[in-house]
Amino acid sequence: MNAGHGLAGVRQLRQSSRALLLIPIALILVITAVDQLVPGDIHLGPLLVIAPAITASFAGSLLTGLIGFLSVAAQAYIGWHFGVLFSRNVLVQILALAVLSALIVFFCLVRERHQRQLAQVRSVAEAAQHGLLWPLPERMGPFRIACLYLAAEDEAQIGGDLYAATRVTGGVRIMIGDVRGKGLSAIGEAALLLGAFREAAHRHATLPDLAATLEQSVTRYLADFEPPAEAGERFATTLLLELPDDDHITRVISCGHPPPLLLSPSSGLTVPSLHPAPPLGIAETGPDSYTIDVASFEPGDTILLYTDGVIEARDADGRFYPFEARVAQWNKAGPESLLHHIQRDLLAHAHGRLNDDAALVALHREPDSHRRGHGRVIHSSGFGHTP
Hints:
This protein is of the alpha+beta class and 387 residues long.
């Protein structure tokens, strides 16, 4: 949301509050007028407390206090009108109304304080998320990229799902992962894994070497920081991809992570068959323990990466989100449009709330003719290898 939209939203909210303010004012006037018309043994003055109570539902402490003052003034006017302003009964009613109005204003102040604290927590969490999950560029070489992160915890807006991409000689390497757990407890391990990938992706010639380095980093971290009560229960699933610029394939290593979806405008949706290794942190392994799976990735195709928070989202009846079936109908959409469709459809399926964090990354290989037209052809230097 940009600044212009934000200011427009604030102005609209203020205008709405001013319009709603007419309701408690009208109630004060109606109750005051009717009280003077009904028989003398009927007293409607105590109903004036409704006005500040209603105001507190949509306005702040200042306006609520103003309506409370008007309610007390109306009660005093009713007593003056009947010549019993200083009677014990009317004085008690005025005092009771003033005390109740003051309590309502107090609760408004408490609510406003909690709202400010929540806004501050969300601001800090969002800053932490941007520092942890660097925004992916819209383009890397011949690839267009879009990403989406949906946190299960509204207050934190951050969790254990992660993704990163980096430009290396001759292509792009990208990682998506899911640290066990969610919320703030998973941030440390996610930060370690992202930092290790960003550093190691440039230093290792092959994906198995990169995967082994990430395994060593996670294992060392868990040895130092894993609580004894959670020994052996902390791990991270990871998917590593290598996308050469001028070779229309993708090389994939899965460490216990769901396979990517390949979307083609001509052939629809396919799921590559992978040979997954154990998740990172289960057992320290060497490069020989990882198998590179190769899949076709032609110009015009899109690769969709995701975490299990997407496929495990449930509706009110407990049914899982039919991810592949839904995505297949958007096989011709660009990466930004594709993620927009998924976000809207996923949240509708889960009724606006996910049980686990969810992350998605879409990579689209531009047609060669389009790349030449924009001067974006980048020749491969032969990084990696195909077994």
